[in-house]
Amino acid sequence: MPEVFVSVGSNIAPRRHIRDGLRKLEARFGRLRSSPVYESRAVGFAGDNFLNLVVAFDTDEPAGAVNDALHAVEVACGRRRGSERFAPRSLDLDLLLYGDATLKEGGVHVPRDEIVRYAFVLRPLAELAGERRHPVLGETFAELWARFDAASQPLWPAFLEE
Fold this sequence. Notes:
Layout: E1 3-10, H1 14-29, E2 33-34, E3 37-40, E4 50-58, H2 63-76, E5 92-98, E6 103-105, E7 108-110, H3 114-117, H4 119-129, H5 141-147, E8 155-158
């Protein structure tokens, strides 16, 4: 059964939307393993700060079904997809890893490119699964984080409780 990793983020009532999204994910996929939560500035647009974390779970569902379920949870939490890629969002759920698979089919692209591009994805992933290896690069996520230019994308600890 593949272990799945999902990036979770929000900058519209983020604590409420993330808590709601996590409850819905747990109802669908069972127990979630979670990284610490981080706050960061919006990337690519001017907007409120984001809260981000990474969750993991095991599933025997195919990657496409998992991705569809993530989109359904986003919609249930008020997500409205527009033409702008970088925009405020109530909930953003991105499939980062599906076991050790490398897939580019339909709307599923794993491992997700954002893993090595954004601190708000890599740091929580490295904390949750630091010894796991990137399926393409072969390095552990802890090694990738250790080399990342963290000063260029500051993060600070946050909490889902207000």
